[in-house]
Design a protein that fits this description.
Two copies of one chain form a homodimer. Chain A is mainly α and 460 residues long. The first copy, chain A, is built from 15 helices and two strands.
Chain lengths: 460, 460
């Protein structure tokens, strides 16, 4: 038996949850999810700040490396026969970095789609929960109205018909009391009526934010892809201006990557804290937002054998009242119809109402049972804490790879374009024509060849 | 109100479903899903055969191209100064093809993961349905046993205690009859008892097959990735034996790609036929496998206002019987306990049993309602017809890209390695050292340079 397989925190959640957190004064912060507490907010902001620090450090390292390479190198003796060393390595490392960046982009697309999947699971679970809750309200309203209508019309008619027989009037009044009991008990079941929190609204808000998050990532990924491809093209065509533009763009994307890295790391940490024990937080938040009793919320959020159905008594009372109405109607039909044939129509109509009410009642019992809403809760948690977190970790990997790849490319690109020959208008990207400079070079004298170091020519 | 958002065939399903199908005699075949009919099987096999035809054609074209290039070219005049034309283009096109293949591999990994996601949704929906069905059986069994126990012990004790008062014995007998009615009605609710079809078994079978499918695709993707990377390495290092081995491996992967293309196309077509109107097929299949009445199956598979709950009557009868037991126990407690204090313990125990039975009854009503099982059905369909089909289409795109890329590579690779220079032991992949041959060449006489066409040197 047991509950159906619910949500279990994954290994990633445990791992991330166990990482130490600190506030701005570097005092340790407990890793329970508490987004309203200042020190917890500081702990997450510190993670973002760490990414900013990483960006600063990598920019300083790139600048230091480029300054060392360009300015502090001993001047080459003029007319030396050896080509500038490492030119090929520079281009190779640049290409390798860009390929790593492209692989990272693939991972990023996957992560973005996983995150989007997870969030759409969350919002579809919210929509389903909203459907359940609004169906409960609707069913209660419909059933209460139907019962009220029956009390006002058929039961009043019957009382008028039976005026002369007091015991029949008493039975009819009994049925009226039972119908009123049912209506009253049922009204207590529409527990979401008047609650200010709408899962539909939450789902729409979540989808709205997710749509822009998804779009922003797709744009970032496409931008980085374009930078990688155009940089490769620039290297292949030895187009100085293209490589310079792409160096600047790489710098921009490097900053964006570190920024997204910081946001992803902070979100992943916060999400892992939430996901390691979501029940308490969600329970408290829902109680604050809805003002519902803790017995109802416990029933739906925990939904195990230990928590009893808070509607059990109301359901049982309604059920007994419905059964009593049925037996009273049966009695009336047996005793009154032979004497008052005009009552038969009202009695049949009442039985029809009773049947529909019993059908609605069974549907209400099904909707009120914690199974359906708890399953939505489990689906929402799995979407957020499994798929969305996994996607976020893939996005983190993408940001890391792209930060590393772009930093390497930024180190290599200026060196690579410094090694490009002065623009030769006859050179084009066509493989067969590109060989021409080499052949010219071979047939010409030595000095022009100095400016054409074979080293960077080899690999494209 | 309406049902919660259920399964709707996607645009892909409609598109694929509208493609014409034909049997081996090329007579049109209706596109309704009928896997047991021979002509439908033939239509799917024809799709696989088309992929085989594609493989044959591409092999013939590759062979014809290579024969034309290698054998039918006018012999070059010895000592001609121009390099063999198109050598660079050959290498470039080979590299471009391999990069397209790598992009295809990325798409393939994504598609494989999507398909796996969809199938795991299907099997988790089956597991959830199995849990619901087994919980129904278990609850019915437990409740019937509990009622039987109460009838055997407490009610018998009460009858013995009340022996002297016939009207009390009659009330007790009435309660016993009602309890027996409840037990009998409840037994009819365990509709899945003795049904030979186990959703658990189906889920396990599906997961088992999916595991191997997933693994096979991962191995194919890794094989193709290795072939692409080692071919690029071979081109970069100009290693003839590596390129030859990779040409052979490319041929093997080309055959595998066309094979998987055929299987994917046939599966996607079959799946689109199934997904365009799954209800009828699944209903008929389930009816055959389980022997359940069509009212029950219609209720669960359609679950809309038009289909009434087939258990409604049993539930209402049980509910009324439970209410009757309650009122009889209330009457006994009121009238008998003052006279027979020894009956109180049995009466309290009976009320406890009644409360538990009412709780179980409400749980049964919830479990028997079509909402839960219909949602599982919808989840399974969405997993299969949205995620799995989408993943399959991505895999199809991967196979197409990789078949195209490998065919291009197979056309280019033999030409590329034919252009490699005889193995130079001093050449290695290090960028700075790779320039050495050029410099040697420049310093040496003209004839050795003839064997070193600049064209293939340029692009790597």
């Amino acid at each position: 038996m047991g509950a159906p397989p619910g949500y279990r925190p994954s290994a990633w959640v445990h791992l991330l949850h166990q990482l130490p957190r600190a506030d701005f004064q570097l005092r340790p912060v407990p890793s329970g999810f508490a987004p309203q507490e200042q020190e917890y907010q500081q702990a997450l902001l510190l993670v973002v700040a760490l990414a900013g620090l990483g960006l600063g450090l990598s920019l300083i390292l790139i600048a230091a490396y480029l300054i060392r390479v360009c300015c502090c190198r001993p001047p080459e003796p003029p007319g030396s026969k050896s080509p500038p060393p490492g030119g090929g390595c520079v281009t190779w490392s640049c290409i390798a970095a860009l390929l790593v960046g492209c692989a990272g982009i693939g991972i990023g697309f996957y992560g973005n789609s996983e995150t989007s999947d997870g969030v759409s699971q969350l919002s579809s679970a919210l929509l389903h929960a909203n459907h359940t809750l609004s169906t409960i309200d609707h069913l209660v309203l419909e059933t209460v109205e139907r019962l009220g209508e029956a009390v006002r019309t058929e039961l009043t008619t019957l009382e008028e018909v039976f005026t002369q027989r007091t015991e029949l009037v008493a039975a009819t009044r009994g049925a009226r009391r039972q119908a009123e009991t049912v209506a009253q008990q049922l009204q207590g079941l529409a527990f979401w009526q008047g609650v200010p929190l709408s899962p539909l609204q939450v789902a729409e808000d979540v989808s709205f934010v997710e749509e822009y998050r998804w779009l922003a990532y797709v744009l970032l990924l496409l931008l980085e892809l374009l930078v990688c491809l155009f940089t490769l093209l620039g290297l292949a065509k030895q187009s100085k201006w293209l490589v310079i533009v792409m160096t600047v763009m790489s710098l921009v994307v490097l900053v964006l990557s570190w920024g997204s890295l910081g946001l992803e790391a902070a979100t992943a940490l916060g999400l892992s804290d939430f996901c390691s024990s979501p029940d308490t937080y969600v329970l408290n938040l829902t109680q604050e937002e809805t003002g519902l009793g803790s017995d109802i919320l416990n029933y739906y959020f925990l939904c195990n054998q230990a928590v009893s159905n808070p509607f059990q008594q109301r359901l049982t009372l309604s059920q007994r009242a419905l059964a009593n109405i049925h037996s009273q109607l049966q009695g009336l039909e047996r005793e009154a119809v032979p004497q008052f044939p005009s009552a038969q129509k009202s009695l049949l109509s009442l039985e029809e109402t009773l049947n529909v009410t019993e059908g609605n009642f069974h549907q209400l019992v099904a909707l009120l049972h914690c199974r359906s809403l708890h399953k939505d809760y489990g689906t929402a948690l799995r979407g957020l804490c499994e798929d969305a977190l996994e996607g976020l970790l893939f996005l983190l990997l993408f940001s890391l790879l792209s930060a590393g790849a772009l930093a390497t490319a930024l180190c290599s690109l200026p060196r690579a374009w410094a090694l490009f020959p002065p623009r030769n208008p006859s050179a084009s990207c066509s493989g067969s024509r590109l060989s021409e400079p080499l052949f010219h070079a071979r047939l010409e004298a030595a000095p022009p060849l100095r400016s054409l170091p074979g080293c960077w020519r080899r690999p494209h």
